[in-house]
Amino acid sequence: MLMRTDPFRELDRMAQQLMGPGTWSKPSVMPMDAYREGDEYVVAFDVPGVTADAIDIDVERNMLTVKAERRPTAKADNVKMELSERPLGVFSRQIMLADTLDTERIQADYDAGVLTLRIPIAERAKPRKVSIGADSGRKEISG
Fold first, then answer.
1. Cα 83 from chain centroid?
2. pLDDT number for residue 103
3. Rounded Cα–Cα distance for residues 33 and 47 (Å)
């Protein structure tokens, strides 16, 4: 049997029970990291216990929306739950992407409970050299 004495964890658990799990109309927030790696932005979302087919990724204009649903596991009739801390329900995150990112070429990978999106920087946003044209003829302004 598991014994626990963390009062704050118990308060969090009770608040979660009162508010209920996330739903499609009121999802819970999923944790994420975002960073730049070379010529792309990487966004990693924690979605442990979620199957890949329960994850929905949408991009509309510059708004990236990621939704995932953690469903309860099937339990036998003779199973009595002693402790349940893993939240169930719907988790979601929305991110406004900059115009400098190429939303047409987003790549998504899911491994070990982490959804990783790689968003390339658009060619038009990459630094480039501008050459200066030489004008050989000088013009004189006469008045």
1. 29
2. 92
3. 12
Rg (CA), the chain: 25
Read off φ and ψ for residue 8, nearest 5 degrees: -70, -35
Q: Token digits for 119?
A: 């968003």
Say if residue 120's pLDDT is above 80: yes
Is-contact 82 2, C-beta < 8 A?
Answer: yes
pLDDT score of 70: 86
Contact 120, 46 (CB under 8 A): no
- With a threshold of 0.70, does the pTM exceed it? no
Helix (H, G, I), strand (E, B) or coil at 45: strand
Q: How far apart are CA 111 and CA 106, in angstroms?
A: 17
With the CA atoms of 11, 45, 102 and 39 taken in that order, what torsion angle do they form, in degrees rounded to the nearest 10? 120
Q: Which helix (H) or strand (E) holds 10?
A: helix 7-19
Q: Are 41 and 121 in contact (CB under 8 A)?
A: yes
Q: Which amino acid does the sequence have at 94?
A: Q
Q: Residue 2 above 50 pLDDT?
A: no
